[in-house]
Structures are given as structure tokens and as C-alpha cells.
Amino acid sequence: MIKLTVNGASHELDIDSSMPLLYALRDELHLHGAKFGCGLGQCGACTVIVGDRAVFSCLVPVASIGSRPVRTIESLGTSDRPGPLQKAFIDHQAAQCGYCIAGMIMRAQALLEANAHPTEAELRAHMEPNLCRCGTHMRILAAIRSVAGIPGAVDKAETSKEGAR
After folding, report:
1. Are 88 and 70 in the same domain?
2. In the chain, is it the N or the C terminus that has fewer CB atoms within a 10 Å radius of its CB?
3. CA-to-CA distance for 26 and 1, rounded, in angstroms?
4. Mean pLDDT, the chain, integer
């Protein structure tokens, strides 16, 4: 029996202790925000927060979690009431296909919880492991900048709104 605390709720799962956290989240707990992308820790689509760190859930066996809490995109908000990062991603049109977005948001959430006002260099270094194959990296960064209060945050989203008037 594996015990996990996910999004504030305790769960006892009768699963193999070597099962990747991603499969426990998706198949056992029916939390589908974290996506299977590569299975190799090279894309970040499966990123969740364990304790206070962003991790690739495809690489983390459930046995290694211990008592550390796990948070997924589902813990940040809903479609009716999105959290600040989710709202910023919507406002900046940061998603094209959307496949990477939950992982991007969770990696950004971990950064902003550790450092509410990172520098541009810290932001880019922290987000570097996650990939967006559609190429919306600049919009993703703009969304995170707007929440973090990094100068230049009111850039593309605001200018495109004004240009549309």
C-alpha cells in the first residue's frame, strides 16, 4: 500500500511502489492535468510539485515520495476560477495546443513560491527544462513575468489589446 497526499487529500493506493507518479496521478487518482509527453524527463509535460520542487512525474517512482505533498494543476484553480498563473496564461494567450501548459504552469508555480520576484535570468533558467513544441515560449514567459512583476510584463498582451482598438 502506498500513501500519497495529493492536492491536500490523503490516498492509500494498492499499486506497485515502482510505478511512476504520473501513472498513479492519471490512472489511479484520475487527475489528468499532468500529461505523458516523452517518458524520459525531457519535455516537462508531466511536471508537478512534490514538496516545494517541480519534478518530472514520469521519472519519479511513487515509493520515493514519502510524506511530501504532491500538487497538480488541479490544485491551482478551475476553469471558472483560474489561479493567478492560469489567468495570466489565458490573458497572454500562452497556449496553442495546450499539451505542455499544465507542466509549464506547475514549474512556474514552484519558482514563484520559492522566489516571488525572480530576475529574468532566474525565470529563464528555471523554465528551461520544459518544452513547448508549438513555440509559444515568449508568451509563456510574458505570462509568468506579469505574475512575478518582472519589468516588461505588460508587453505583448497589452500592446495587442491596444492595437485591436
Report:
1. no
2. C
3. 18
4. 91
